[in-house]
Amino acid sequence: MNFKLSSTSSFSFSKINKLAIPAIISGIAEPLLSITDTAIVGNLKINPTESLAAVGIAGSFITTIIWILSQSRSAISAIISQYFGANRIKEISNLPSQIILINLIISAFIYFITIFFIVEIFELYNAKGLVLDNSVAYYKIRALGLPLTLFTFSIFGVFRGMQNTFWPMIISIIGALLNVGLDFALIFGIEGFIPELQIEGAAWASVISQAVMAILALVFMLKKTPFTLKISFPFHSEIKRLLSLSLNLIIRTIALNIALFLANSYATKYGINYIAAQTIAFQIWLFFAFFIDGYSSVGNIMSGKLLGERDHKSIWNLSKILGKYTIIVSIILGGICFLFYTPIGELFSKDNEVLVLFSGIFWIVIIMQPVNAIAFVFDGIFKGMAEAVILRNTLLFATFIGFVPTLLIGDYFNLKLYAIWMAFTVWMILRGGILIFVFRKKFYK
Known about the structure:
globular; mainly alpha
């Protein structure tokens, strides 16, 4: 499903959604894996709150690593889409295989380093006792999927650069459905066949699903794109630019994850019920983020291609259309959450104290979504144009001038979870506002 776009094309709702809907389905697969783990683990009969807290801490750290390492996906997509738009795709035939090899080596290295220091890492999150033990046990298994996930994301970047979000969607659907089935089978066990593995079962379910997705991604790339995994040397001349893009996006993502680390660290400091409630709220926030990221991916895909065609007017029009669509989608999702405000929390936990804390801050998660939508759209557009330096500087400013001071002030006044979500709100306002300002200066004539 290659989406053809010319400079005279109108960005109709149907055309946008030919790319956006598959990207949304593909994008929400990863948070759905975490949400499924969170919901099922939070309803265990033995130590459910401690298990929920452990999955929240370990899952947050895994998400941090994945976000950092997967920035090459955006870099791959940006470069391939620009060559695609310029009709020069044959010139980069060996580029994907080279960057995938580099990514696999890096992810394997990160896996072994983090496994060695994992206890100390989770102690930085203020985890202790049973929560620390469960976090370590979950991570040691779940982290086996890191190279698999990065491999899959790299191939998804290739497909996006080729203006194709259909096959990543198919792979993600299969992976998500498999993970849900395995969660129930491995967490609770099947009498006479599979023992009850509880939190470790959730981790194994994710790893098996990620392995299946990696195999499918390889098969579809070989069959549906002009690229192969054959490694040839010397390195392509674009490797330097790709690695530079990736490095700037990695620095940006480190800043992003400093905010996420501080949020979880402070929530854990407040108490086990607080980190459990924070885990639920953040998983829902993450689901929203990845859902809206489907439209951000359209910005990534189209802006890169349009830049390759030197069609700046269409990039401006694209930003307006995507901004409108994402605001509408975020309002609809927020309305659904308000409608089912209480039942949503009860899906994740039966602990009354956890539910009270969650209900107290869930409304903030909901009302900030239109702001998030705009920020994510412009994230995608700037990624597609390979403007990694702007994205890096924006995140550094939003994190250290916005998020951190707001969190510290809120903590000083003992606002606890309210402080965390006030900080997130300021963070997203700065992220979106700065990118809009820069974009208007660049393209509004």
